[in-house]
Amino acid sequence: MSEPSSDTLRVEHLCVNTTHGVPILQDISFEIRPGETLCLVGESGSGKSVTSLATLGLLPKDALSAASGRILLDGEDVLQVSNGRLKALRGSRMAMIFQEPMTALNPVLSVGRQIDEVLQTHTDLTAAQRRAQVMDALAQVHLPDIERIYDAYPHQLSGGQRQRIMIAMALVLEPRLLIADEPTTALDVTTQQQILKLIRELQQKHGTAVLFITHDMGVVVDIADRVCVMRQGRIVESGTVADVLSRPQQDYTKALLAAVPGLEPRAARREVFSAQVVLDVSELGKVYPPAGGGWRWFGKAREGTRAVHDVSFTLKRGRTLGIVGESGSGKSTVARCVMRLLAPTHGAIRVTGKDISELSAASLKPHRKRIQMIFQDPNRSLNPRISIGKSLIEGPMNHGVPFAQAWARGQELLELVGLPVDAIERYPHQFSGGQRQRIAIARALAMEPDVIVADEAVSALDVSVQAQVLQLLQDIQARMGVAILFITHDLRVAAQLCDDVLVMHRGQVMEYGPAAHVLAHPQQPYTQQLMDAVPGKGWNFAAGQRI
Amino acid sequence: MSKPVSLSLPAPRRRLISLPRLPLTSAIALVVLVLIIGMAIFAPWVANHDPVALAPAFRLKPASAEFWLGTDAYGRDLFSRIVYGARISLTVGVGVTVMSILIGLPLGLMAGYFQGLDALLMRVMDGLMAIPGILLAIAIVSLSSAGIWTVMIAIMVPEIPQVVRLVRARVLSTREEPYVEAAVLMGTSTLKILTRHLMPNTLAPLIVQGTYICASAILTEAILSFLGAGIGTEIPTWGNIISEGRVYFQLKPSLVLWAGLALSLCILSINLLGDAARDALDPRMKKRGAA
Lengths: 547, 291
Description:
The complex is a heterodimer.
Chain A: E1 9-18, E2 23-32, E3 37-41, H1 48-56, E4 64-73, E5 76-77, H2 83-92, E6 94-97, H3 101-104, H4 111-122, H5 127-140, H6 146-150, H7 159-171, E7 177-181, H8 189-206, E8 209-214, H9 217-223, E9 226-231, E10 234-240, H10 241-246, H11 251-258, E11 277-288, E12 305-316, E13 320-324, H12 331-338, E14 346-351, E15 354-355, H13 361-368, E16 371-374, H14 388-398, H15 403-416, H16 433-446, E17 451-455, H17 463-480, E18 483-488, H18 491-497, E19 500-505, E20 508-514, H19 515-520, H20 525-533, E21 539-540, E22 545-546
Parallel strand pairs in A: 3-8, 3-9, 6-7, 7-8, 13-18, 13-19, 16-17, 17-18
Antiparallel strand pairs in A: 1-2, 1-4, 4-5, 9-10, 11-12, 11-14, 14-15, 19-20, 21-22
Helix pairs in contact in A: 4-5, 5-7, 7-8, 8-20, 14-15, 14-16, 15-16, 16-17
Chain B: H1 24-41, H2 43-46, H3 78-113, H4 115-130, H5 133-143, H6 148-174, H7 178-185, H8 190-227, H9 238-247, H10 254-281, H11 283-290
Helix pairs in contact in B: 1-3, 1-10, 3-4, 3-6, 3-8, 4-6, 5-6, 6-8, 7-8, 8-9, 8-10, 9-10, 10-11
């Protein structure tokens, strides 16, 4: 069954069907040489993850099966071997790292034990030898204080550290093939950059072939040697990174590349100095009380967690302010304080001149109208049990608009956000994520707000849909003059959408100013670091060349 | 906007009224339950004798064309008594279920939504849960007169915390959903948020819980009657029939067995239908059960 081949992994004409015969993958062929990284890139539902599962022999048996084709790992067909052999192959010859390391690690075992377990299963080493090898693996992924890390439990480590543990575990047996399924998607950009660098380094050291799955073109630029673009279960285009990115042949690839937002801040809009300040936040602070109450019978009162400290900004009519930062930077807390979903502990929030930071729930109601929110997850931001129309008219009717008028306005708004008028009778599950996000925008607009707060509003969307929704936001702003407070972790999106940018780190403002200044010429070291970590920064997607 | 984006939408889902495909056990349970309900509703026509008329001349007769299941120690027709007994059992079962949900649902919604109220209300519920149901029922019934209402209230009190806890747990998870926050931001009143956005999410598990409450209420009522702490012996209930038949068990075991069979079948079919409802409403549980 074995045949000589220079390729570590060779997939030939792979087809995967559901048990009902619906094709999921059609005629997938690619090969990866030792020391090479192949990126499978595509939008959600394109079949990237199914390809990786098939390669590992992990297709869910009651749902999917390989209909034809071969998957040759060093000449051995993964689809033909026995279950026992497959288990031996996984771990020793191929290994996988996942998107969310927290769920891939066992929470009740120390991470050292978990790596040790891999060695115990696949090798005959003594305990001392195994420990030495685990320590070596931990050192190779550049974890600090490896003696302590060995005995640490997953929850005691940061996301980046956990992903390093996963990599150490995957590479401890020096597999020939490493499959990485969106390994950095859940991580912050600076951590992502480090993890990508680490994978690159270890790959060169051991000559591992890497099958890297991602939706992010920027990551492709940073890690791939060759790239396969997938769409609807087919590979539509493949080649070296430079070829595919600078001379895309297929329209789909071109569209995909065109949808990647550029990192150059867009041309500044002319600022109207007389424009009304609709949102003025000054010295905003939020302290979460410590668990179990703020005071004790004896001793000093415990301090709370300072989530946001001394944040000030102003937003004028028709302008967009981006708040960018990594997870835990406090940007969402700012948004929730501004919306008064949280009560701030310090500072003032003036919406069209009126301070709402200390209003009670009842007196807040008339001011709620002025400021509306778009949420991150389009699947959860609409009540699945009520029709789109009812969601759209709920707000206006709360503020006394008669039903007929609110309904007519709802239809207008649906048209405005690019949906057919008859969508108003339907239910959220009948729409895609992008469409639902349009409906959420329409719902926010129905209140005729002065300010829209968008909290990571495009982060859950595919890049092409993301581009459409961003365009929609810009169009609406131009037409209606609404001000947008845009919370995002994605500096590319911020560069394309925002007039002003506020960079947050650990609850504090690091830098605040016009996008052109902050993003193009960052002054603060943290902002520079952030800009430096943006994946694919060395590539101009619009021009199709290296910068 | 610059250009309208044309989007194709899937055809609206038509809600056809079609009988769901039931597993065999659920289908049998449904038939049995429908028979029992029909028997209860049409008792005057189904029963061929007066269930309470004493006829000492016909004591302890065996089954015959005249007395289908025979007669009891007072010459009353056993079949007719069981048919009328179904009325009490079902009334108690449905009544307790409806009442405990009517009381528990609003309490659960409030406990889940208002954090201040939550701590207080749930401690009260913990207190109620700590009381053994049957003991409480015996206490209430012996303090007041033993009627169907006192029995129903006595059975209901320990069931309320179950409903409250279930609803509260659902509300706690749903209130974090962005669509609920969006409703808050749109100025929707708290009452409307509770009824429109939060309550519908609690109904599916409540239906399932309701079937279990119903079955357990029927059983508790029978136990109370059997112990003599339930509905008065002049009214035919399954528990009363078993209790009276117990004395003559060695002489005529069918007195106990037929009523016991009716009780078991009724509770079993309600529980099976509850399982079917849970599988239909929460497919994840089904998969877990099968694995």
